[in-house]
Every structure is written in structure tokens, then in C-alpha cells.
Write a structure and sequence with these properties.
The chain is built from 4 helices and 13 strands. The protein is mainly beta. It has a single domain, classed as Lipoprotein localisation LolA/LolB/LppX (outer membrane lipoprotein receptor (LolB), chain A, Clam).
């Protein structure tokens, strides 16, 4: 699977709602099921932008307008997420947990975590990260000790992500309809079924589960051309807490023993790995935001 495919899958996953990643075909190892999970929380920070007493939307177009209006008014968001990737052919599902941070313009960080039992203690480790400062996207895989790098100034993120930053127009690229099948979301949620106007090999439908209170997205579901399902659920989104710019920067020198592959270095996309820098001058690795990474509540 090419890095471009990974980016596409990740980008579509972002819309999941935060908010809003990862390649379904190469999903991270499943994280342990949280012990004694609590009920999901969909609390919006008091200062999060809300639409002033909106009338109940009657069409999919109106819902899309409300969703875009909501995200046009926010600056950043932090949320826990749970990703479930289901392979249609084998009927298997892998589940991963983590924390996501997104900040305008175009910055994001997804940390996938795994719990490990060490004696009587439980240790939480970041196993994989997607880090973007708006110019470059880094996919950091700690188990494989490799980093994939992509220049986003050459290949911009699709509108499925850019609308989160107040840009792009979902209606221009998707045909929207209300989904009343009850397959996704909870009672009272609004579910949008988005179909790309231009056929895509990466996905055929994108479902957004939308809160009727303020029109933020609490879940997103990607169904690809092979009927594999990439389902994101977001918990406790905080649209008010500031996020440091340094959280979205990645220093290649901080992983001197990792193989760094530049997707733009050759026509093949993944060839041309950069030589790791010499030891001795490695900078301190950029630490993720100081936000705990507990396992999300059970959906």
C-alpha cells in the first residue's frame, strides 16, 4: 500500500469527527480492551462555537451546511478516539485507541497507544503517530523503526479534511443524503451518507454521525471499494483547550536509528529512503502534548 493511500485513508478518517486515521490495510496492532470502561462522553467545551438555536434541518444539504459552519468557527480540538477496522473478506476486526489533536491551519497529530502490563503497573506506550505541521506529514512507526514522510504542499489534503480548518466545500465533492437505517450512531443522532461525485478506489461511502445539538461529528465510517469498514468514534472532544505548536513538529534527528523514507524522492513514491543522520547531534524528540492517553470508553 503506497504512502499516498495511507494519507488518503488517514485524511478521510480525520473527518470522523472529532472529529476525526490510519491505513485500513495496515492498521496498528489492536490495543487491549479497556478494563471497566465508562459511558462515552460527548461534552463540548463551554466556549466551543455553537449555532444560535438552529432550526431542525430537514435535508442533508442543510446538515452539511451546519457541520461546515461549526468547524469554520473552531480553532483547535483534542479528543480520544477508538478506531475499528473490519476486513470484509475475512470478517476480522482490529481495534486501536489513541488521542488526536488538530489545530488550524492544517496541523494534526494522531498518537496510537497500547497498554502493557509491567508487574503490577500498566504502562501506556505510543506505538504509532501521524504528525503534520501543515507542510509535511510524518508517519512514525516505533515497532518497525521507520518514518514515512510526505510533502503536503505538493499534495494537499482532500476536502474531507480541509473543511475541518474552515476550507473546502463538502457539497462540491460529495453527494449527501440522510441515512435512516439506524446502522450507525445513537438514537437522536443525525447520520450523513456521503458519496464522492468522482469514483474513488479508496472509498465508496463516508458516513458522518452528527450531533443534533451543535453539529459536531462524533463518528465517521469509511466504506472502501472492497466493503472494508474503517470506523472512528470520538470521545470527550475539547474545542477550547489550547494546543502547543511544538506538538505538530517532528525532528527527523530524534530517531537516529529509524529508517526515514521520503515519498517524494522517487517516482515509485516509497523508494529512496533517506540515510539516518549521524549520532551525536540528534535533537531531543518532540514530546506529544501533555494529555493522558487512557483507553476511550466502550462505544
Amino acid at each position: 500500500m503506497s504512502l499516498l493511500a495511507i494519507i488518503a485513508r488517514t485524511a478521510l478518517g480525520l473527518v470522523a469527527s472529532i472529529m476525526v486515521t490510519s491505513d485500513a490495510a495496515a492498521a496498528p496492532a489492536a490495543a487491549p480492551t479497556p478494563a471497566t470502561p465508562t459511558a462515552p462522553v460527548h461534552r463540548i467545551a463551554p466556549s466551543a462555537p455553537l449555532l444560535a438555536a438552529p432550526a431542525a434541518p430537514s435535508t442533508a444539504t442543510e446538515v452539511v451546511d451546519h457541520v461546515q459552519h461549526f468547524y469554520a468557527g473552531i480553532k483547535q480540538v483534542t479528543a480520544l478516539f477508538r478506531q475499528s477496522v473490519t476486513n470484509d473478506m475475512f470478517g476480522s476486526t482490529k481495534t486501536s485507541d489513541g488521542t488526536v489533536w488538530i489545530m488550524k491551519p492544517g496541523k494534526m497529530r494522531w498518537d496510537y497507544v497500547e497498554k502493557k502490563k509491567v508487574g503490577n503497573d500498566t504502562k501506556v506506550e505510543v506505538k504509532k503517530s501521524f504528525i503534520s505541521n501543515g507542510r509535511y506529514l510524518y508517519v512514525v512507526e516505533h515497532d518497525n523503526k521507520q518514518v514515512l514522510k510526505k510533502n503536503l504542499e505538493r499534495d494537499l489534503m482532500p476536502v474531507a479534511v480541509s473543511f475541518l480548518y474552515g476550507k473546502g466545500d463538502l457539497k462540491a465533492e460529495f453527494n449527501a443524503e440522510l441515512d435512516r437505517s439506524g446502522k450507525y450512531g445513537e438514537k437522536g443522532d443525525i447520520v450523513l451518507r456521503l458519496t464522492p461525485k468522482q469514483p474513488s478506489a479508496q472509498y465508496k461511502n463516508l458516513y458522518l454521525v452528527v450531533s443534533p445539538k451543535d453539529f459536531h461529528v462524533s463518528q465517521s465510517v469509511i466504506v472502501d471499494a472492497s466493503n472494508n469498514v474503517n470506523h472512528f468514534r470520538f470521545y470527550a472532544p475539547d474545542f477550547d483547550k489550547p494546543v502547543q505548536d511544538s506538538s505538530f513538529e517532528f525532528d527527523e534527528r530524534s530517531v537516529k536509528n529509524y529508517r526515514v523514507t521520503d515519498a517524494d524522492a522517487s517516482p515509485g513514491g516509497i523508494a529512496g529512503a533517506a540515510t539516518p543522520p549521524a549520532s551525536g547531534s540528534a535533537a531531543k524528540a518532540t514530546a506529544p502534548p501533555k494529555t493522558p492517553a487512557p483507553a476511550p470508553p466502550k462505544p
